[in-house]
């Protein structure tokens, strides 16, 4: 939601493949960049193999991602997609110790911790059993409580902005559209304890309306109400009133009153931050662990704010 969100470098990975059930020792793979490698500099002999099953049945499409720490979304590398009728995969990989993240549209996110992949060796993960996740459903309404159709609804567990598809699933983000009656359903939702933020759910029409991010918690039926939006531009200052450089610093906004909106982001290296599509109203703005500062957001306008912050000793 904010341009000051954590920066993520997405590494495109185009290698994908699967074993043939009749001849499991002869994998068929496409040529391309190694799994987990920023460039084609890995060793072809370093491979990761296995099979993904749900209820004993091979999963035909899924994605794999390596992560230095699967609980820290900015440590999750861009995934590689595997297609096939038999659920097998055999992919060229970079060596090292990683968490392996397995995601798909038909099952909940699966994490295999601390997998050691040795150079010029095959790491066999064997059969990976995955299960279905939870269902989250609800409705999106305008301020007059009229259902709003064809609007994206997102669950974010990562704090990262706009990851979608398999990469979104790998970092714990989900997106669906409302139907003509304003209803939405998330299938196979897997709540996870990430180290960035709690799971949040929101619906937004950019520059028009937004429910704002609301903590999901244990709720499985949710009603989101849209409100007119504005933007906020801010600058963090040091004790002398100069821009505070050397960030980023965490920035959060919590709505006053009946809204249960909690927005998080971060400043850039020059101490600037920007929140887009914030529902109009009054908020408590905090930088780091500082005391809250009251700010007001007006529909269709960009509010400006300066925040003094003293670095802890």
Q: What does it look like?
A:
This protein is mainly beta. It folds into three domains: 17-130, Immunoglobulin-like (Sandwich), CATH 2.60.40.10; 134-207 and 215-221, Immunoglobulin-like (Sandwich); 229-308, Immunoglobulin-like. The protein is 2% helix and 49% strand. It is flat and about 55 Å long. It starts with 16 loop residues before the first strand and ends in a 5-residue tail after the last strand. The model is unreliable at 1-43 (pLDDT under 50).
Write the layout of secondary structure elements.
Elements: E1 17-20, E2 23-29, E3 47-54, E4 57-58, E5 61-67, E6 80-83, E7 88-92, E8 96-104, E9 107-117, E10 122-130, E11 134-141, E12 152-156, H1 165-170, E13 174-177, E14 183-189, E15 200-205, E16 209-210, E17 214-215, E18 221-225, E19 227-237, E20 250-255, E21 262-266, E22 272-279, E23 281-287, E24 293-297, E25 302-308
Parallel strand pairs: 3-10, 11-18, 19-25
Antiparallel strand pairs: 1-2, 3-4, 3-7, 5-6, 5-8, 8-9, 11-14, 12-13, 12-15, 15-16, 15-17, 16-19, 19-22, 20-21, 20-23, 23-24
CA-to-CA gap between the ends? 31 Å
Question: Biggest sheet: strands, sense, closure?
Answer: 8 strands, mixed
Oligomer: single chain
**Secondary structure category:** mainly beta
Order of helices and strands: EEEEEEEEEEEEHEEEEEEEEEEEEE
pLDDT average, as an integer?
A: 81
Helix coverage percent of residues? under 10%
- Measured by DSSP, the beta-strand proportion falls in over 45%
The third-level CATH topology of the largest domain is Immunoglobulin-like
């Amino acid at each position: 939601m904010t341009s000051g969100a954590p920066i993520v470098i997405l590494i495109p990975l185009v290698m994908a493949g699967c074993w043939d059930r009749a001849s499991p020792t002869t994998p068929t793979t496409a040529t391309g960049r190694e799994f987990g490698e920023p460039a084609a500099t890995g060793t072809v002999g370093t491979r990761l193999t296995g099979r993904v099953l749900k209820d004993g049945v091979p999963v035909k499409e899924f994605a794999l991602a390596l992560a230095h720490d699967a609980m820290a979304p900015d440590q999750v590398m861009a995934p590689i997609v595997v297609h096939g009728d038999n659920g097998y995969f055999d992919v060229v990989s970079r060596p090292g110790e990683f968490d392996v993240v397995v995601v798909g549209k038909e099952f909940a996110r699966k994490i295999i911790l601390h997998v050691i992949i040795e150079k010029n060796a095959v790491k066999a993960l064997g059969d990976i059993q995955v299960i279905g996740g939870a269902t989250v459903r609800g409705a999106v309404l305008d301020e007059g409580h009229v259902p709003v159709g064809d609007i994206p609804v997102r669950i974010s567990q990562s704090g990262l902005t706009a990851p979608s598809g398999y990469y979104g699933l790998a970092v714990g983000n989900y997106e669906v559209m409302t139907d003509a009656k304003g209803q939405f359903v998330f299938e196979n939702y897997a709540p996870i304890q990430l180290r960035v933020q709690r799971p949040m759910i929101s619906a937004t029409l950019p520059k028009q309306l937004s429910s704002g991010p609301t903590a999901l918690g244990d709720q499985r039926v949710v009603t989101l109400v849209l409100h007119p939006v504005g933007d906020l531009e801010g600058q963090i200052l040091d004790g002398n009133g100069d821009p505070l450089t050397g960030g980023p610093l965490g920035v959060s906004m919590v709505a006053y009153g009946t809204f249960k909106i909690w927005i998080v982001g971060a400043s850039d290296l020059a101490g600037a931050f920007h929140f887009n599509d914030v529902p109009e109203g009054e908020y408590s703005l905090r930088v780091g662990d500082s005391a809250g500062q009251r700010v007001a957001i007006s529909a269709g306008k960009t509010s400006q704010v300066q925040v003094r912050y003293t670095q802890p000793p």
